[in-house]
C-alpha cells in the first residue's frame, strides 16, 4: 500500500523562492538609487527614508499585535513598501507627512484589505497619491542636489533645460529615488538576472511612452529618463500582487501604463502621470486576469476539463 500514488490538490510544483528572499532582492536592487539620492540630497533625504521605512515596519508590527495576528514584519514586505514610498517623495517633505504616508500604505492600503497578497493596488503608490492630494504644496517642492535652495525646476517641468547625460546619471532636482535612471536600470537588471521580475512590463511600459513621445514631437530619451518612469516601470508596475499573471496580460498592462502616463504628461494639468497610470492599471488587473489568454491542458470548449 505504501507504493500507491497519492492524489492531492494543486499546486504540485514547489519553488525555493520565499517572500523574504524576493523582498531582500528588491531591497538590494533599490539600494544603489536610494543611497545615491541620500548622497546628492544630503541628510534630509536620509531622514525621509528612515522615517518611511521605520514607520512602515512599526505600523505593520502594531497592527498585527493589536489584532493578535501572526507577525509578518520578517517577510520584509513592509520594509520594501517604506523604501519605495521614501524614494517617491521629495527630500524636502516634512518627516511627519512621510510618516502619514507609511501608515496609510501599510494600514489602509495593505492590512485593511487582508495583508500581503490581498491589496488591490500598490501600497507605496497609493500612499504617494494620498499625500499628493492631501499635501500638494509639500509634495511638489524640490531642492537642487547638495543645496538648500528650493526650486520647482524638475526635468518634466522643463525638458529643454536638461540634457540626456544629466537625466541618465541623475544630478538634478526631483524625488529621492527617481533621479538616476542609470542606477535604477542597474537595479532592474539585477532583478532580471535573479528572475524576480520579467522584462515584459518594464519594456512595454517604457517603449510605449517612448513611441508616443516620438509621435507627439517630444525627445523620447528625455521623456523616458525624466520623472519617475524608470522607478515606476521597474519596481512598482512589476509588483506580483497588483499586476497580471499571464505574459500577454503583462504586455497589455505595460502598454496601458505607458499610454496613460503619456496622456497625463502631455495633456493633463499634472507634470507626472506614472503613479496614476500604474494605479489605474492595478485596478483593471482583475479584469485582465479574467481574459482567457491560454487554456489549461485538456480543456475542451463547452466541456471543461
Can you put this structure into words, describing what you see?
- The chain is an all-alpha fold and 305 residues long.
- It has one domain: Ammonium transporter fold.
- It is 58% helix and 1% strand.
- It contains 13 helices and 2 strands; from the N terminus they run H-H-H-H-H-H-E-E-H-H-H-H-H-H-H.
- The chain has a two-stranded antiparallel ribbon.
- Helix 1 packs antiparallel against helix 2, helix 9 packs antiparallel against helix 11 and helix 9 packs parallel to helix 12.
- The longest helix is centred in the first third of the chain and has 24 residues.
- The radius of gyration is 20 Å and the shape is globular.
- The chain starts with 18 loop residues before the first helix and ends in a 16-residue tail after the last helix.
- About 2% of the residues have low confidence.
Task: Give me some keywords for this one.
mainly alpha, 13 helices, Ammonium transporter fold, 305 residues, two-stranded antiparallel sheet
Q: Could you give a short account of the major beta sheet?
A: 2 strands, antiparallel
Structure annotation, total helices: 13
What overall geometry do the principal axes of the alpha carbons give? globular
Our measurement of the CA-to-CA distance between the termini, rounded to an integer number of angstroms, reads: 29 Å
Gyration radius over CA: 20 Å
Number of strands: 2
Strand content: under 5%
Count of domains: 1
H-E string: HHHHHHEEHHHHHHH
How helical, in percent, are the residues? 55-70%
Overall average pLDDT: 87
SS-based class: mainly alpha
In CATH terms, what is the fold-level topology? Ammonium transporter fold
User: Could you list the spans in which at least 5 consecutive residues all have pLDDT below 50?
Assistant: 9-13
The CATH class name reads: Mainly Alpha
Report the CATH architecture.
Orthogonal Bundle
What is the spatial order of strands in the main beta sheet?
1-2
Amino acid at each position: 500500500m505504501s507504493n500507491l500514488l497519492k492524489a492531492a490538490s494543486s499546486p504540485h510544483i514547489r519553488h525555493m523562492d520565499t517572500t523574504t528572499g524576493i523582498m531582500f532582492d528588491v531591497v538590494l536592487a533599490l539600494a544603489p538609487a536610494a543611497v545615491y539620492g541620500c548622497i546628492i540630497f544630503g541628510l534630509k533625504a536620509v531622514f525621509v527614508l528612515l522615517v518611511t521605512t521605520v514607520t512602515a515596519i512599526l505600523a505593520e508590527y502594531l497592527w498585527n499585535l493589536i489584532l493578535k495576528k501572526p507577525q509578518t514584519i520578517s517577510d520584509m514586505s513592509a520594509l520594501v513598501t517604506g523604501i519605495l514610498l521614501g524614494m517617491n517623495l521629495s527630500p524636502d517633505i516634512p518627516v511627519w507627512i512621510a510618516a502619514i504616508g507609511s501608515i496609510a500604505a501599510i494600514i489602509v492600503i495593505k492590512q485593511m484589505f487582508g495583508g500581503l497578497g490581498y491589496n488591490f493596488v500598490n501600497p507605496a503608490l497609493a500612499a504617494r497619491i494620498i499625500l499628493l492630494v492631501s499635501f500638494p504644496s509639500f509634495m511638489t517642492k524640490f531642492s537642487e542636489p547638495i543645496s538648500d535652495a528650493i526650486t520647482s525646476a524638475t526635468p518634466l517641468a522643463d525638458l529643454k533645460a536638461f540634457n540626456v547625460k544629466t537625466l541618465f546619471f541623475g544630478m538634478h532636482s526631483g524625488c529621492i529615488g527617481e533621479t538616476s535612471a542609470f542606477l535604477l536600470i542597474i537595479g532592474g537588471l539585477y532583478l532580471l538576472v535573479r528572475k524576480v521580475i520579467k522584462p515584459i512590463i518594464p519594456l512595454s511600459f517604457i517603449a510605449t511612452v517612448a513611441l508616443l513621445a516620438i509621435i507627439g514631437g517630444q525627445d523620447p530619451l528625455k521623456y523616458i529618463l525624466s520623472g519617475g518612469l524608470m522607478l515606476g516601470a521597474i519596481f512598482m508596475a512589476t509588483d506580483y500582487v497588483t499586476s497580471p499573471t499571464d505574459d500577454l496580460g503583462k504586455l497589455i498592462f505595460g502598454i496601458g501604463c505607458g499610454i496613460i502616463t503619456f496622456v497625463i504628461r502631455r495633456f493633463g494639468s499634472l507634470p507626472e502621470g506614472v503613479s496614476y497610470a500604474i494605479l489605474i492599471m492595478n485596478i483593471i488587473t482583475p479584469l485582465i486576469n479574467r481574459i482567457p489568454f491560454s487554456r489549461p491542458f485538456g480543456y475542451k470548449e463547452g466541456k471543461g476539463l
